Amino acid sequence: MAVANPEHRRVAGVILAGGRASRMGGGEKGLLDLGGKTLLQRVADRLAPQVDVVALNANGEPDLFASLGVPVIADTLPDRQGPLAGVLAGIIWARSQNRFSDLVTVTCDTPFLPTDLTARLLAARQRDNDLVIAASNGRHHPVFALWPLGVEKKLAHFLKTQSDRSVMAFIRNCGYVSVSFDFIRCGDQSVDPFFNINTPRDLTEAAQYIDMA
């Protein structure tokens, strides 16, 4: 059941898992085990109550992710061009459903993501076409964002014409609103809700937080 939002907008959620996970030695990072669940399952469990539907952006074999029980969307652009390619694929998919106004994106390696992410991003929007991004501890997290579906053409053009294809470069080009999130408590530790798992050491650290949560 999706969380009600103040604008009564229908929001699709996409978990971005289309990268190469090179610092993890390759493979599908989202399928790594963390406390008896995959990273993907932990992220999906936190995102699903916040949106009307969850889908996964991944470029591996769809059967690898069957246990998650969500649509799997591959990049529409070749050569794994980064998170923005996954955002574009998510927007194209959401528009094809003819029932969503916005897309929320998160990454597959953030098992502590805020459970009020979508509601707070929506509440911070000042205009229907605003991009809204998350922040914590003075840092922006532009992949954790609310995207109006009308940005599709501008994003496709950006990816086709720009050499700097970072998420923040595109968002700065569009203009954005940011929302700051507090750290969360896990036992006696304060943890950034956007703590992301890039290395085996990060996975070990996250397991300690999971045990305390």
How are the elements arranged and paired?
Elements: E1 11-16, E2 33-34, E3 37-38, H1 39-47, E4 53-57, E5 72-73, H2 83-96, E6 102-107, H3 117-124, E7 131-136, E8 139-148, H4 152-161, H5 167-174, E9 176-180, E10 184-186, E11 189-191, H6 200-212
Parallel strand pairs: 1-4, 1-6, 4-5, 7-9
Antiparallel strand pairs: 2-3, 6-8, 7-8, 10-11
Helix pairs in contact: 2-4
Give a quick summary of the entry.
The protein is of the alpha/beta class. The chain has helices at 39-47, 83-96, 117-124, 152-161, 167-174, 200-212, and strands spanning 11-16, 33-34, 37-38, 53-57, 72-73, 102-107, 131-136, 139-148, 176-180, 184-186, 189-191.
Description:
By secondary structure, this protein is α/β, with parallel strands linked by helices. The chain is 29% helix and 23% strand. A hairpin with a 2-residue loop joins strand 10 and strand 11. The longest helix is centred in the middle third of the chain and has 14 residues.
- Portion in beta strands: 15-25%
- Residue stretches low in confidence (pLDDT < 50, at least 5 long) are 1-6
Structural class: alpha/beta
Instruction: Give the overall form.
Output: globular
Order of strands side by side in the largest beta sheet?
Answer: 5-4-1-6-8-7-9
Q: Provide a count of the helices.
A: 6
Which percent range fits the helix content? 25-40%
What's the main sheet like? 7 strands, mixed
SSE succession = EEEHEEHEHEEHHEEEH
Mean pLDDT: 91
How far the N terminus sits from the C terminus, by CA atoms, comes to 24 Å
Radius of gyration, rounded?
Answer: 16 Å
Structure summary, number of beta strands? 11
